Amino acid sequence: MKLRYLSLFLIFLVGCTAQAFERDFTDDSVKKSFSKSLLVELFTSEGCSSCPPAEALLARYETEQPFEPVEIITLAFHVDYWDGLGWKDKYASPLFTQRQKVYDRKFRTGQIYTPQMVVDGDIEFIGSREKAAKKAVKKASKRQKANITVVVTDKKVNVSVVGLRNEEPATVYLAFAEDGLGSRVEAGENAGKELTHVSLVRELRGIARVQTDAGSYSGLFDLNLKEEWSSENLRIVAFVQENFSRDVVAVTRSGYVSASLEP
Fold it and tell me: 3-state class of 184 per DSSP?
């Protein structure tokens, strides 16, 4: 009898996870009041069989925002070192692999791996481990953050930061992240699976440097969208990251770009 109830519970749990992951990522229905924002990055690949559960967790945090009043801003970086092992990830970039390697100089894990989740540039863990994620969010939420805004108008992006207290030189980044992309994997570890992605990074741009204790920053940049990106499913994440510690000292995101460009 106990075994039967356990089986039913596992079926229910898997069903709930799948339902959360298959939500319409273009839906802005989740409206909550946030006092602070944290950046959660996931290094992943379509060629990695252990990555789908981590992507499902990332998607749930993005769509459900379970840590109110802390807002979770997510980015999924597809790395390229899985390519050539039976399946090539068309969303992967060597630049994203390089970003993960830079993190490894801090974390000293011995090797880069997927799925790896990084919270605010300061804490790393296996991306499918929810207990580790909750612990990391709780710790990161205690840190003070600068206030940052990103506004998209007339094919321009305006980024403003106030209250910076960076203890070393930092970089201002813009990440262009698209929801709802996916693929049917024909070979490799995920062969036969239909994969759907949320917050998939299309491009990461380092747009400016700020010196130690700069206090504030403001800049206006061209949007420069690429034809293959869907502006209806595209958000811009702006963040400030210290160059050596890799700590994220400010982060925010826009609404969907298409809405911002409407006359």
Answer: strand
Q: Count the neighbouring beta carbons within 10 Å of the beta carbon of residue 210.
A: 23
Q: How far apart are CA 99 and CA 43, in angstroms?
A: 9
Q: Are 21 and 55 in contact (CB under 8 A)?
A: yes
b vs e for 17-26, b when ≥16 Cβ sit within 10 Å of the residue's Cβ?
beebbebebe
- Cβ neighbors of 86 (< 8 A, separation 6 or more) are 47, 187, 188, 189, 191
Domains in the chain, start-ordered, CATH in brackets? Answer: 33-261 (2.60.40.10)
- Whether 134 and 70 have beta carbons less than 8 Å apart is answered as no
Tell me: the pLDDT tens digits for 154-213? 899 999 999 999 999 999 999 999 999 988 988 888 989 999 999 999 999 999 999 998
CA dihedral of residues 94, 128, 119, 66 (deg, nearest 10): 130
For helices 51-64 and 2-21, what crossing angle results, to 10°?
70
pLDDT per position as a tens digit, 57-76: 999 999 999 999 999 999 99
b/e map 100-137, b = 16+ CB within 10 Å: beebeeebeeeebbbbbbbbbbbbbbebbbeebbeebb
* Pair of tokens at residue 249: 């000292």
